[in-house]
């Protein structure tokens, strides 16, 4: 069986850091933040209103791509134990971060309840179990069965990074096998409804890891291909125009005809309707089509030409701390909107201020990174953040 890394006797020299990836991760983070301050006027302008997928798909896809850039070549060329330990440590950090955010989210809404006396605020992000049955809720939070609203993507990310050593081992032997197994799990979960359990309500994780792992693995495979070939996927005229046509169809459906009813085709809804929990096929195809079209458009050249100190690039390079900061700020914004702060002026001001806070965090981390690495250029391969 041919190895996924080819038969070369020496390591392939990896290309430099992909600035465009950082820029698009920055765009995705801003979009996620806007969508999380739910009910604000800017929410209507994000791309989820114009197609089947949203920024969550971009976040997971880019995470897989960055994971390959950070770890795969070093894993293949002899650092298996070191990379495995590094990835495991990162998964533990993600788990701890998620639990800290659950506590912070509960504290933010508790302050709103204290100020207004309105216990109904706890229902806004599903905090009632934490308040009504704290013992069961805390145990369920620790086992990731209980996930308050807006705090359900980090558990997915934890599972993806926790399973990354297995992906690295499979991909190092045969990338096609790794992608094929991942796709099989994706189809099995989508067609059977298999999911992880949740508390207190049934229904499973909002971001089903058995489904969303496939998008992460696709991103990983493309990131690894860029490491080997210098390009994630080549331009094909027919494929590009087919992707454009699919994006146009999604736009027409979302802004014109509306989604068809369940059962409109003699197929499972997983194959026919854009559903988020199981990352249905229409949603998966949409995010892949979007990335392919943008990657082979003038937008990609613009993104790649930006300096590493560009605000969007800084956001994307430090995506995890920026994302966590955005979660806290967005949850606070939701609480404020529920307690009398509302209107277009508040929305625009708060979103702008929240993006500014995230930029401040990214700039501070960039400055720290520069001091740690000296005055020279940023390293080509860094840990995904």
TrEMBL record:
It holds the Pfam family OpgC_C. It comes from the Bacteria. It comes from Teichococcus vastitatis. Keywords: Membrane, Transmembrane, Transmembrane helix. Coiled coil: none annotated. The chain crosses the membrane at residues 55-72, 92-114, 149-168, 175-194, 206-226, 238-257, 277-295, 315-336, 348-367. This is OpgC domain-containing protein.
